Amino acid sequence: MDQTSRDHRTQRILATVDCIPHGRVATYAQVAREAGLPGLARFVGHVLAGLPSGSRLPWHRVITASGHISSRPGTGPDQQRAKLGTEGVRFSRSGRVNLKVWAWDPTAPG
DNA sequence: AACATGACTTTCT
DNA sequence: TAGAAAGCCATGT
Questions:
Q1: Domains and their CATH numbers in chain A
Q2: How many Å does it take to go from CA A49 to C1' C12?
Q3: Which nucleotide is closest to the Cα of A65 by its C1'?
Q4: What's residue A7's pLDDT?
């Protein structure tokens, strides 16, 4: 895999994450699919892991397929959970997001 | 090339 | 709903 291709895919991932609307969430796999990289859910995680702390990207809208928040190095899940909370995303009693309700629908207009 | 690791997903119990 | 195991892809050593 060339460096160029790697950056290309990275850009796709970043662009897709940036497309997640306010108050919605998307799974890693979903982001990968929308980016044209099906099956590269883990790659999305790698890309997000490389984002700076002050990135403007809505990385907090990316969660696991179970509606859970993945443990990331350094900061705890509270940060992401709080960010989603300010956007109106409600969490289940078990600390999960109901993807049936809050999942981002790329096919929907707007 | 082989092994280990990770912000993952799916399937089974 | 919750936990364990297997599968998948990219990266670093």
A1: 3-102 (1.10.10.10)
A2: 15
A3: B9
A4: 82
Which tens digit of pLDDT belongs to each residue from A54-83?
A: 899 999 999 999 999 998 877 788 899 999
Which residue's alpha carbon is at the shortest distance from the C1' of C10?
A43
N- to C-terminal Cα distance for chain A?
35
Measured at the alpha carbon of residue A44, what is the angle toward residues A106 and A84, in degrees to the nearest 5? 60
* Strand C within 7 A of A90 CB: no
| A14, containing H or E segment | helix A3-19
3-state secondary structure of A25: strand
